[in-house]
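User: Second chain of the day. Same drill as before.
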Amino acid sequence: MSIDAKNRKKPTNNFRYFSLYCLDVIFPKRCLGCKKFDTWLCDKCHARFGLVVEQRCPLCTNVITPSGITCLKCKHKSNTFIDGVFVASYQDIFLKKVIHAYKYRFIKELSAPLALLLAQSLQNAHLKVPDLIMPVPLHDRRMRWRGFNQSQLLAQELDLQIPLVCDNLKRLKFTAAQVKVKNRQKRLKNLEGVFGLNDSKAIAGKKILLIDDITTTSTTFNECARVLKKAGALKVTGLALARE
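Assistant: Same format as last time:
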């Protein structure tokens, strides 16, 4: 999806954003794939992303399951709370490059073409319409560093005409990024007690769709779902761009 140059956000007075603006002037906007000017991701390069055809169990990732639901073996585990996770696109080298630019080069405009992948995946999924959409939250410390919540921008760009709630689910503790924690047990330990809710009553009886950028073993999704299910959520499903 091409992004018109005129939609570029003006920099704030923050020194980091001013520095990035200066770099953008010196190194003008070019497609991350073919280097075409005035877009971060052109239509042709966006079409390179291949949607996932066969979804897998979000916890063990070994079993192919209908619509990304949790397999029977994982469902019987006491620490299983997520009902399913849809992964939008294959985790190829180019997609990793685009997501990295989005998160670590702070290119917020990439949220629109990346959200299109999520929307295309939802069209192919047999998912009941959720009552609420919630992005996986960032801790305030990481939010200050990045300047935006990448999952929240993706959720906003989806524009599904479904209530988007960004101020209820919260991250209580600052932890190491999950992608840096390779062992599953350490991943679980890393997220113990991390998530909470501002208003538990607003969750009861709701079907909730969680949005994140990347999932590996769906530990983050599962911990968010644990908090939501404890508050009375009826069903919690995750949607991510890719599986690491």
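The first strand starts at residue 84 and ends at 87.

User: Great, on to the next one.
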